[in-house]
Specification:
globular, Rossmann fold, alpha+beta, eleven-stranded antiparallel beta sheet, 499 residues, 2 domains, seven-stranded mixed beta sheet
Length: 499
């Protein structure tokens, strides 16, 4: 029997598993696996929210295509899958569904659900060495605005967030601060996080310095990070970049920054990017955080620093898996058409990247759409294969995957789902990918784009009604708002906030 091979290769890690097994001095002695009433969440790295798109819509702008990221939407929602008890720190389960695409094409869907046995009530995060690399260029507006403004300048947001992160570091943690503008300078060498007087003084001394040489700032930051990695003493080394992502001196292309981030990732240095303000460069942002240990968050308003840390600390600095790979074989007559939630570019014919899995308050998802060739019967669909990821010691953990077409009969909409999590993931993926295609079409064909956005808006409204999930209400409103903006021919923001 002929078969189509589908290979999804990415990144993942179990960064805490070794410590949880009792490594000396690990700081995770009582992590409480499985305690506290059920599983905790886990989600892929990359861009972690849809805030950029939401903020542009709120301000009457049609977002650019790259503001619509399925992985960002997935990270904002809880997409759990149930199944056999999980025995590992990272729990991977699969379930299937059937639902037509936005264009009405019949399709089957395979979801990989991600969760963790960590108990958040007893979790003790790894010790951290943090290099804060801070953009002090003119576009950041360090010398004006205040925390009381509804929309502080990016510089003000950077100071607010960095101050709060520094306040959450403690015994066993270290921090260094690099500032870049026209020049680059180390404002604070490696310092115990408990020395708040020195840390706060370095943050207070940040101010505007000309143009944006992000390349020089990141190179200095990664040098310090490699120094910390070589010296040891902390379990996690992470560069944290505070910027509006508008480099205009030195390296400026996404590929140049991705190479720099890849070199750091290869040496065990994670990267968190805090994108500040609606003028951010989304292409560069995505390139920076697609690789091992990378994630990104967007902030705009005065409440965002507290919102972000309340929701994502310490999980944003707690990777639990790298090099996640899904290898599937589909039965004859079927093939994969599209994948959703995998950050990064495809690798090979159908290779997909999920570079890192982080702890999260929400249970994450990866999704694949399968199509049938002419004459194939959906009831005959079978996929089997292997899921795998690396432990911190480099050991690959694997499990088998066996899925078929959902056993239940499709409803009047042509839909059938083994679990509600699949239904919700499919609804969100169809919405975001539909709005992205509409945003791509908008400059050349605004009427066609508006029609497509309206179709996506109607679909998510129907899906939300079927699921009766209040968490989908903001997405119904997002779809409607984008369609209305396109119908009114509102201006479209480009990647650097020039409207």
């Amino acid at each position: 029997m002929g078969r189509n091979r589908i290979e999804m290769s990415g990144w993942a890690v179990w960064a805490l598993a070794l410590w949880m097994l009792g490594a000396a001095g690990c700081g995770l002695a009582d992590a409480g696996m499985g305690g506290g009433g059920g599983e905790f969440g886990a989600t892929q790295g990359g861009v972690q929210d849809m805030q950029f798109a939401r903020e542009l819509v709120e301000n009457g702008q049609v977002p650019p295509p790259d503001a619509f990221l399925v992985e960002g939407m997935f990270s904002e929602h809880d997409l759990p899958l149930t199944g056999a008890p999980c025995q590992n720190l990272l729990c991977l389960r699969t379930a299937s569904g059937a639902a037509p695409t936005l264009a009405g094409e019949p399709a089957a869907w395979l979801q990989v659900g991600m969760s963790s046995l960590i108990d958040p009530d007893t979790f003790v995060r790894p010790s951290l060495a943090v290099v804060a690399v801070v953009d002090v260029s003119g576009s950041m507006g360090w010398d004006y605005s205040s925390e009381e403004a509804e929309y502080p300048t990016p510089g003000c947001l950077a100071r607010m967030l960095l101050t709060r992160i520094a306040g959450r570091l403690g015994a066993g943690d270290r921090i260094a601060i690099v500032a870049y503008g026209t020049d680059v300078s180390t404002r604070l060498g490696w310092t115990p996080a408990e020395d708040r007087e020195r840390v706060d003084a370095a943050i207070a001394g940040l101010g505007t310095d000309g143009s944006t040489n992000m390349e020089a700032g990141l190179r200095r930051a990664f040098e310090l990070a490699r120094q910390a990695r070589a010296e040891g003493g902390t379990q996690e080394v992470r560069v944290m970049l505070f910027t509006d992502v508008q480099p205009n001196v030195g390296a400026t292309s996404p590929s140049e920054f991705q190479a720099m981030a890849a070199d750091g990732a290869d040496q065990g240095v994670g990267l968190s990017v805090f994108a500040l303000g609606v003028g951010l460069g989304a292409e560069v942002l995505e390139a920076l955080v697609q690789l091992r240990g990378g994630n990104a968050f967007s902030l705009f308003g005065r409440e965002d620093p507290d919102r972000l840390l309340g929701d994502s600390w310490p999980w944003l600095a707690s990777p639990i898996a790298y090099d996640l790979r899904l290898n599937l074989v589909a039965s004859e007559g079927f093939r994969a058409k599209e994948a959703y939630g995998f950050p990064g570019e495809p690798d090979g014919e159908f290779g997909l990247q999920a570079a890192t899995v982080f702890l999260s308050r929400r249970k994450g998802a990866l999704l694949v759409r399968l199509g049938a060739e002419e004459g194939a019967r959906w009831a005959d669909l079978r996929v089997h294969g292997e899921l795998g990821y690396l432990t911190p010691a480099g050991e690959r953990i694997t499990q088998t995957v066996e899925q078929g077409y959902p056993a239940m009969a499709p409803d009047e909409r042509g839909m059938a789902f083994e679990q509600p999590g699949v239904e919700k993931a499919v609804a969100l993926a169809i919405l975001v990918s539909g709005l992205r295609r509409a945003a791509e079409l908008y400059p050349q064909d605004p009427a066609g784009a508006a029609e497509l956005a309206r179709l996506a808006a109607r679909r998510i409204a129907e899906d939300a009604e079927a699921l009766a999930d209040p968490a989908l209400e903001p997405e119904v409103e997002l779809g409607r708002a984008v369609a209305e903006l396109m119908e009114r021919r509102a201006p479209q923001g480009d990647l650097y906030g020039r409207y």
